[in-house]
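Changelog note: in this version the structure field was regenerated for every chain. One regenerated record is shown below for reference.
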Amino acid sequence: MKKITFSLIVAMLVAVTSVSAQQLYLGVKGGINLSNFSGDLDDADAKVGFNIGLAADYEFMFNHAIQTGLFFTTKGAKYEGDLGEVSGKLTMNPMYLQLPVHYAYKLDVSPGTRLVFHAGPYMAVGVGGKVKVKASGSSAEVSDDFFQDGAFKRFDAGLGLGVGAEFGPLLLDLGWDMGLTNISDISGADAKNQNAYLTVGYRF
């Protein structure tokens, strides 16, 4: 009887500890992107952009978490050189709403400071953006909607990974998103988003 009672007490303590370890944190994040394309457009140059959004961090076990959120992010690339019959500069600047779902493992370094290793899939929907063409020696610039001319699809999906740090409520994150979806809508063409990012944030 004593053994049964002791086992029940231990089981209750484990259950209470597990529940108390579950925490949901909300925060804001923002930073810079360095994006490009892979596939048929891999000769383009990387382009600097930005990201900003709301983040959620659900710690379902001690030092184990699911990280997600909703972010406005810019991707794309730029190309400078021969543009058919003329030479000039082409800038592709698609904008997305992106939803990542990452598993994160957190490693305690010191009180209040943890390293965070995370990876998982993401989905994104294009909400706007421009394709800009500027011929060499001309001040004129032609601009068109990135998703409206039938050349690019709005849906994007891929895998992301990164490493970050938590300094109490302050967050720092360095990551990479590798697009796995062909966003080109032109038959026989292939283009996938590639994006590196550096963000800072604050967790409530």
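Spot check on this record: The two ends are 46 Å apart (CA to CA). The chain has one domain: 22-203.
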